[in-house]
Amino acid sequence: MLLITDSSLSHADVDADPKTLDIIDKHAKYTLTTYGRPPVVFTHGKGSYLYDVGHREYLDFTAGIAVNALGHSDPEVARVLFDQAKQVVHLSNLYYNVPAGELAEQLIEATRASGHFQASKIFFSNSGTEANEGAFKFARKVAKLTAKKGQENNKFGIVSFKNGFHGRSMGALSATPNPKYQKPFLPLVPGFAHAPFNDVAAVDQYVTEETCAVVVEPIQGEGGINIATEEFLKKLRSRCDEVGAVLIFDEIQCGLGRTGKLWAHQNYSKDCVPDILTMAKPLANGFPIGAIMITDKVAEKIVIGDHGTTFGGNPLGCAVASSVFRRISTPEFLENVRKNGAHFKEQLESISSPLIKEVRSKGMILGLEFKVDPAPLVALARERGLLIITAANNTVRFVPALNISKAEIDQGINILKEAIVTFEDRTLDVAA
Ligand SMILES: Cc1ncc(COP(=O)(O)O)c(C=O)c1O
């Protein structure tokens, strides 16, 4: 694919403010390059918009990869951050603090009230990866204490799924079967196996008496917006019960209102519940925090000293999360996510292009699958003022702020349509 920069475009890379290149040079000189980034430097945002060094405005359909659920620089988030920072920022887990207790109560009570997952305890972490690491440790401890006699040291297998994504630390990476992420760091943690997603018939073969945990995203985000079937989640639940394994739902990307329900698994019947649920991304609208929510059955096996963190559960993050959670968990807010998510989906379905294969979505997590690699579309959209990201399987992923308006969705879709026309011209030209 040719990279053609067109200075007639509203947000052309070639017209970037000169300060942009200075800042990028500084990054290149002093920070480790593990990300390929476009030549744009953002300075601030407001709602669903971001602004670059040269004051150019971009509509943001990425929301920090499903993080800024309430948009950028939300005034209430800023107020809570400031007020809590004036009280106390950090205490360590040597002592109790007020916001962590309040947040834990809110999360557990709202989850129980759904009538689905009957969670009973929370452990706070700093990120999604760390939440998953903790979940794997808890599962291994449960297995050691509940395995059949003589099997205590054999029951350590963790099953995850093809196209799943659970993070980049060694345990989470071991559950993320993407050769691009795993290969440079082999060997990984022993005991991980990767089963085909949504393949009910394969479950018994992978989930055995040696399995201590199964980890699954009810909707795979990074993997291309792949939605688990009811039958598949039910089978995982029943197989985990059969072999005495813990079922972990990684709702780091698809949970916390993203689908228009508090948790993605609430889109399924009440049989589709985990023993452990991990969350992170939008919990504090961008302030780093994660959490592991567990049932009594798991909690009773974990004792003082089993797990720890310096920053997890700090009063600042928990105060912000508590305020964010109060807002995103109301029925009105979730109803709006469902309504605007349906509108977004209709708009995507209205795009006619020979390159498009299908639209997949649940609420405000949407995927537009192409017949070819859509990577060039990201730059084509950005140079027209729209931020989008890709996912696996030739899919463009849309995970905007949950409070994005219909007018903003329409504005973005119009830009996307223009970008797709150019993408088509270039792709079909190359193919011809
Ligand atoms: C489903 C899922 N799990 C885990 C993670 C890792 O979370 P973090 O980047 O906060 O460590 C991500 C991040 O994209 C994710 O989407």
UniProtKB/TrEMBL annotation:
GO molecular function, one term: pyridoxal phosphate binding
GO BP, sorted A to Z: L-arginine biosynthetic process
Cofactor entry: pyridoxal 5'-phosphate
Entry GO terms, CC: mitochondrial matrix
Any Pfam family: Aminotran_3
Superkingdom of the source species: Eukaryota
SUPFAM superfamilies per the UniProt record, alphabetical: PLP-dependent transferases (SSF53383)
InterPro entries: AcOrn/SuccOrn_fam (IPR004636), Aminotrans_3 (IPR005814), Aminotrans_3_PPA_site (IPR049704), Class-III_PLP-dep_AT (IPR050103), PyrdxlP-dep_Trfase (IPR015424), PyrdxlP-dep_Trfase_major (IPR015421), PyrdxlP-dep_Trfase_small (IPR015422)
Keyword Transferase: yes
Keyword field: Amino-acid biosynthesis, Aminotransferase, Pyridoxal phosphate, Transferase
Subcellular localization, as worded in the UniProt entry: Mitochondrion
Pathway(s) per entry: Amino-acid biosynthesis; L-arginine biosynthesis; N(2)-acetyl-L-ornithine from L-glutamate: step 4/4
Transmembrane feature ranges: none
EC number(s) recorded for this UniProt protein: 2.6.1.11
NCBIfam families: argD, PRK01278.1
HAMAP family xrefs: ArgD_aminotrans_3 (MF_01107)
Family statement: Belongs to the class-III pyridoxal-phosphate-dependent aminotransferase family.
Name listed for the protein in its UniProt record: acetylornithine transaminase
Native source organism of the sequence: Entomortierella chlamydospora
